[in-house]
Structures are given as C-alpha cells and as structure tokens.
Amino acid sequence: MFIRTLPWEYAVRNLLRRPLRTSLTCAGLSLVVVLTLVVIGFIRGLEKSLAASGERRTALVFSLGMGENLEYSSIPMRSSDLLAASVKPIERRYGQSYVSPELYGGCEIGIPPLPEPAMGLVRGVTSSVLLVRRQVELEEGAWPQVGEVMVGRLAATKLGLSQSALHPGDTLEFEGRTWRISGLFSSGGAAFESEIWCRLDDLQQAMKRQDLSLIAATLEPGGDFADVDLFCKERLDLELQAIRETDYYAGLQRDYRPIRSLAWLLVVLIAGAGGFAGLNTMYGSVMGRIPELATLQTIGFVRRAIALSLIQEGMLLAATACLIGTAVTLAFVQGTALRFTMGAVSLQLDESTVFLGCGIGMLIGLAGAIPPAIRALRMPVVSALRAV
Description:
The chain has 388 residues and is of the alpha+beta class.
C-alpha cells in the first residue's frame, strides 16, 4: 500500500539542527568503525599470511616426532642429498633438484637501537631455496655472502622496531657474531617476511651444528606426495616424517583459532558498545521531538512514514561515520605491521574487510534508530501534543 513519505531533506535538516550532538555521535560511530576495521584487518592479515605461506606441490621433511614444531627438529645433513636422489617425482631442471636444506630457529638478535636483544627467527638457506620458495623476491640489496644476512619486509616489526628500521649496510648480532645486512626481501605476504635469512654453512658454524631443521622439496606437476612419505618411512635410520606444506600451515591456522575467536568476540563487544551509544543518542534526539512528530501525524503523515524518516536519520549518520572511519583507517592503518608470536602480520583492509566493517556500522545505525522510533510513535497524538 502506497504511503506519503516525508521529504528526504527533512531527515538531513534534522541532523543539522543539532550540530554538536550529531558531530559527537558521528565521531563515536566513526571510532567504532575504525576499531572494527583494525580487528578484522588483523584477522584477515593472519589468515592471508598463513594461506600465502604454503604451496600444494611442496613437501616438508623434518624430524620424526616433532609434530608441527620445526624449531626443535634435527635431521642429518645427508638427508637432503638422499631425498633428491631417491624420490623421482621431485622437480628438476638442468640437473638441479628443487630441494632446499634449511636450518631454522629462534634466537636473540642484538640491534644497536635496542638496549636489550629481541627474539627473532633465523633461517639458514642455500641458493636452491629460491627454486622452492618461489614467492620470495629480493626487493633491495644483494644475496647474502659470508657474514651477511638478508631480512624480510616484516623482520624489523618482529624485533620490536618500526617496519622500515632495517636497511642494507646495518648490522645485527646473534649467536656471538656480527652480521651485515646485504638486502631486503618480500614473499607475497607469507610468514617468511618476518624472518632473517643467511647462508646455511654460516649459520651452522655460528650455532655449532652440522644438522638441518627441515628439507623443503617441490614435486613436479602431477607428482605424488606418497613417494616422499614412503621414502621417510623406508629410511628408518634417518628418523624422518613428511607433510605437505599447505597441511602444515593449515595446522597452524587451527592452532591460532582461539586467537581468531577472541578477535571476533572483540568485534562483537565493540559493535555492541557502539550500538548502545547510538541507541542512547537517538533516544535523546527523538524524545525531544515528540510534539513535532505528533504534529506531523495531525497534518496527514502516517506513523510508518515518520518511522521511516527517523530510520533515515540513523542510517545517514551511520553512513557518514562509515565513510569517515574507512577513510581514516585506509589512510593511517592500512599495511601497518603488528608483532605476533609467529612473526609479524600486516593489517589487510581488503574489500571484504571494508564491506564487513561498514556493514556493522550500518547495522548499528539501524539498531539505534528503530527502538526510539517505536517508542515515540506509540504515544497517543493528543498526549504528545500536550507536551508542547
């Protein structure tokens, strides 16, 4: 059934009639949108980092019984050559096998600006790592030589510094040696970006170890992972186990599920607090206009049209807050790196994050406008007019 609605300008004019109240409400809702986007951006950044770290054709071989803890894995150095020679489906090109022996672990990193060393992640690699970790790109500087390291894009954040604090030519100290930074690398958002890479033989000498933590091997297209698994089970003397790289990072995602659940709970609490604040403000605004709303009914506007106009006001206010909150977040928070137990993650404000954050903001505007509209329009017209 057709109803005669109030002009669109009526809702806009009502918002401008009380500029201070409107501005404060808009600022509060904008803050809620910013906080919501930051928390959702953190969740998206964590999920994207773990998803980008694994490749379906890559297998990880490490010590039997270590579960998913690669830092404490120790396997014989010769395992790498034996794996490359024994497993046929491993990809090869010009006689070079796509096998990367790696020594990986956490250690205290000393940096001149920091009074105390910070915990960092160090990976000793050979040049073959670039065949397996194909998402890695050298952004600046050169491949590390003896006594040198190259640092990931988020390694400085992991160490408690600003994201751009480390440059080629700077020095780091760990395992009793001083290392010169030769270059900076990125890996498409993967977890490697919070690590420090150096030559495998250099790290083995510094750590006084002759073993490896893991072997990463890329299978040729159509290659069967079962061949790698069979090699590990046949060579009982090496005490190895194998897992697909994607399964390894999927396991890490499951381990971090409680953190993601806690972050979503934080989003609900922020949205709830914003909803109550918006509800309180709209109640105050509508209750002060009861005579005006009763007058509109006496001149022919039905209650549904007046309720629609009040909801219009709430949605307009919420839409403005969403635009301001999103603009502020994109300008000052997008790409910001946060320190995390497994390394560091960048806040990801992609389309889905913005859509979800703004959707929550609009829901707050809607939820804040409906109850006061119902409360005001239930009052009898005569009683409302006597309130003048």
